[in-house]
Design goal:
Layout lengths: L5 E3 L5 E9 L1 E5 L9 E8 L5 E2 L6 E2 L8 E6 L6 E6 L4 E12 L5 E14 L1 E3 L9 E9 L15 E8 L2 E11 L9 E3 L9 E12 L7 E5 L5 E6 L5 E4 L6 E4 L5 E6 L5 E6 L11 E11 L10 E6 L2 E4 L9 E5 L5 E2 L2 E10 L2 E13 L8
Parallel strand pairs: 20-22
Antiparallel strand pairs: 1-9, 2-9, 3-8, 4-7, 4-9, 5-8, 6-7, 10-16, 11-15, 12-14, 12-16, 13-14, 17-18, 18-21, 19-20, 21-29, 22-28, 23-26, 23-27, 23-29, 24-25, 24-28
C-alpha cells in the first residue's frame, strides 16, 4: 500500500478574530506543536490589505498580498502566539493556524499550494492540486464572519481537523485527504453553518500538498509507445530503476522491492513489459539450491485478465516457469527445488499488457548445496 507519512497535530489549530479596532493580531500556536513541525497560518484583514508576518522565518505562500493570505514556517522554539501586523489601522480580522508533522520522524515540506477567494457567497469550493509525491492534502476554509451560529460544514471526503465558529468567534473549517503521487486531489465545497444558510460573506480557501522526507517519492511514468500504446508504471515505497527500451513498446524495471502496478492506457495496444528483481549471490564458489519462490500478484484488476510469465535466471540461463493468470490478489508459492546454480540472477516477469496488473511481492530463497541423488 502507499505510504503517507505526514499528519496534522492533534488538538486542531489556533484561531483568533476581531470585529475591528486593531492593527495587529496575536495568532495562537496550534496545540501540541513541537520543533520541526510545519506551521501554516491563514488569514484575512478587512478591505484586503497586506498582512505582514512576524519576521523573516515566515514564507508568504504564492506571493499573495491581499484578501485571503497564507504563510508557513518550520517550528523552532516558538512562542505561545505570533504577532501579525497589516497595512492600515482599525481593521477587522480573522486568523487560523495548523501544524503538520512527520509520523516517521522526518521533515514535512510544502509541495504545492493553491489559494483563492470569493467576495460574497454562502459557500466556497476549494482548488485542486496534483502532489509530486504521496501527500497529505490539507484544505483550510476561512469564512470572514464572527456572527455565524457555528463552523462551516465539513465537505464529504475530508477528515476534519479544525471546526471553529460561533457567535463572537472566528469561523474556520479544515480537513485533509491523502493523495497518491501524480493524482489530482479534486475539489471540495464547504457551506455556511446550517443555522445561517442564506447569508453571504467573504470566503477564502487554501489547498496545501504536504509531503514528508520519510515517504519515498513514488515514480509514476507514462510512456507513449511509437505504435500508439500507452503504459503507466507506478511504484510504491521503493526506489525503482526505470529504463525505456529502444523499441519504445517495451519496459524493463529492475530492483522491485515493493508494490508495482503496470497499466496499459488508452488507446489500448498490447504493450510488452519486463520486471526483473535483483539477484542473489551468497557465495560464488558454492552452488545454491532453490528453496521457494513467492509471487504476490493481481492480474484481474481492470476486468481484463492479464497473463504473467515468470522466468528464473540462474548462471545466465533462463528457465521459464508456469504462467500466472490470477483472478484475485494472491500469493503463489512456486516450487523451485529442481534448480541449482552459483549465480541466482533474479526473477523476471514478462507479459503483454492490455489492462492492469499489480505485483506486490517477489521473494526468492535458496539454500547452499546440491542434493545428492538417492541411491537405488
Amino acid at each position: 500500500m502507499p505510504s503517507y507519512d505526514p499528519a496534522i497535530r492533534g488538538g486542531g489549530g489556533g484561531s483568533v478574530g476581531s470585529t475591528g479596532g486593531q492593527s495587529t493580531a496575536a495568532v495562537p500556536k496550534p496545540p501540541n506543536t513541537v520543533n520541526n513541525d510545519l506551521i501554516i497560518v491563514t488569514g484575512n484583514v478587512n478591505t484586503g490589505v497586506q498582512i505582514n508576518p512576524p519576521d523573516g522565518t515566515w514564507t508568504r505562500i504564492n506571493g499573495i498580498v491581499s484578501g485571503f493570505q497564507t504563510f508557513w514556517k518550520r517550528a523552532s522554539g516558538e512562542p505561545a502566539n505570533w504577532t501579525f501586523t497589516w497595512d492600515g489601522v482599525n481593521r477587522a480580522y480573522t486568523f487560523s493556524s495548523l501544524a503538520a508533522y512527520s509520523q516517521g520522524g522526518g521533515t514535512v515540506s510544502l509541495d504545492v499550494a493553491v489559494t483563492s477567494q470569493v467576495n460574497s457567497a454562502n459557500s466556497k469550493t476549494s482548488d485542486a492540486v496534483t502532489p509530486s509525491a504521496n501527500a497529505l492534502v490539507l484544505i483550510s476554509y476561512l469564512e470572514f464572519v464572527i456572527s455565524e451560529p457555528g463552523p462551516p460544514t465539513n465537505p464529504g471526503g475530508l477528515t476534519s481537523v479544525q471546526a471553529v465558529g460561533g457567535f463572537g468567534f472566528p469561523t474556520f473549517r479544515a480537513g485533509y485527504i491523502y493523495i497518491a503521487s501524480g493524482a489530482g486531489s479534486g475539489t471540495f465545497t464547504s457551506n455556511n453553518n446550517a443555522g445561517d444558510p442564506g447569508s453571504n460573506w467573504f470566503w477564502g480557501s487554501g489547498t496545501f500538498s504536504l509531503i514528508s522526507s520519510t515517504t519515498t517519492v513514488n515514480a509514476e511514468v507514462a510512456f507513449r509507445a511509437l505504435a500508439g500504446g500507452n503504459l503507466r508504471v507506478t511504484t510504491e515505497n521503493a526506489e525503482l530503476a526505470i529504463q525505456h527500451l529502444l523499441s519504445a513498446t517495451n519496459l524493463r524495471a529492475t530492483q522491485v522491492t515493493a508494490e508495482i502496478a503496470l497499466q496499459a492506457l488508452p488507446p489500448v495496444s498490447p504493450v510488452d513489459f519486463e520486471i526483473q528483481t535483483p539477484g542473489i549471490i551468497l557465495d560464488s564458489a558454492q552452488q545454491e539450491t532453490g528453496n521457494r519462490l513467492l509471487l504476490g500478484v493481481n492480474c484481474n484488476i481492470s476486468g481484463v485478465p492479464q497473463i504473467l510469465t515468470p522466468i528464473l535466471i540462474i548462471d545466465g540461463v533462463e528457465y521459464i516457469l508456469p504462467r500466472i493468470t490470477s483472478m484475485s490478489r494472491v500469493i503463489i508459492d512456486m516450487p523451485i527445488h529442481g534448480f541449482h546454480g552459483r549465480f541466482w540472477e533474479g526473477v523476471r516477469l514478462t507479459g503483454r499488457l492490455t489492462g492492469r496488473v499489480e505485483v506486490f511481492l517477489v521473494d526468492i530463497s535458496t539454500r547452499q548445496g546440491v542434493p545428492s541423488p538417492r541411491g537405488g
